[in-house]
């Protein structure tokens, strides 16, 4: 990889996501913006035919601004047969899987410093036989990462990244959450979170809050046993090791200071939050910052980001898809790639 080039303006592989979803639209909208183009060299992995079709369809609806398909680099991949917009289909699942694989190969070949993934539809992947829970696991497998995490970071309209929430468990049924949580899993996730807060976000002594699992964080064992049996002790262990960490915090009040700080009010918000399951972390993130939040995979040797939203099949082709989360995803990827390039140059000295 050409570290000097990537440090100045990183090349980013952008996979187009499910062709039946809003991925192509939000990519064209995001790449039309000067601040995005000033921060990175985008290389879009997807079908040129699909990109051009989306462009002309949106132009007919007077959607603007849009990046012209010849204004950025495209790694042209098969378009497959006709794609039915807004429909879950195996063919579309196969294509979005191939677009992601192509982006992965580009990074492995040193052609890009990171990957930004537009949303895929997980049921379409399953229909096509790609039995991964999501893109995160494909990336972890491709890059040989055994410990990795799904971190959501959000940035207010003015200012830098403020809200950072790591999910301890992700795409599993609610009924399996308790059995999936263990002291070792939480140790791994906490290490990933502290490392990322330091390395990726430049925080020297970050403060982290850990959510309880049960109402009132278990009410001393009256409403669930996880906190009393091991979670409280695990957090005390990390405090003794010198980490700035608190919890288990009752999940209903955990987000109050984060929300106040997000609104610009004085509040004792933490630098990072560990939520124990998907919706415990993503309901507050999406309520506060749906347009500004980014999904980033931590623990990979490369940078990977994605918008916080999905394929939004219900609005495909209408021109109303909001592109701000894709913009934030590209900008965070560029920032993280730049930071990592600087760190590797500093290490090499
Ligand atoms: N980064 C990724 O690859 C992600 C993929 N997904 C996948 O997407 C598929 C659909 O998931 P859903 O739960 O329906 O969530 P979704 O985010 O696709 O849609 C939820 C609601 O939000 C609206 N919405 C979403 N993004 C929007 C945007 N940019 N602008 C305006 N409105 C927007 C949709 O119209 C819909 O009403 C699933 O297969 C899911 O697993 C979900 C989240 C992230
Ligand atoms: N809810 C987040 C999400 O679905 C993202 O999944 P992934 O495809 O990034 O693994």
From TrEMBL:
Subcellular location: Cytoplasm
EC number: 1.1.1.262
Pathway as given in its UniProt record: Cofactor biosynthesis; pyridoxine 5'-phosphate biosynthesis; pyridoxine 5'-phosphate from D-erythrose 4-phosphate: step 4/5
InterPro entries listed in its UniProt record: PdxA (IPR037510), PdxA_fam (IPR005255)
Keyword Cell membrane in record: no
GO biological process, one term: pyridoxine biosynthetic process
Residue positions binding a divalent metal cation: 171, 216, 278
Lineage: superkingdom: Bacteria
Keywords on record: Cytoplasm, Metal-binding, NAD, NADP, Oxidoreductase, Pyridoxine biosynthesis
Positions bound to substrate: 136, 286, 295, 304
Cofactor binding comment, as recorded: Binds 1 divalent metal cation per subunit.
Additional note from the record: The active site is located at the dimer interface.
Family the UniProt entry places it in: Belongs to the PdxA family. PdxA2 subfamily.
The protein's name: 4-hydroxythreonine-4-phosphate dehydrogenase
Organism whose genome encodes this protein: Gloeobacter kilaueensis (strain ATCC BAA-2537 / CCAP 1431/1 / ULC 316 / JS1)
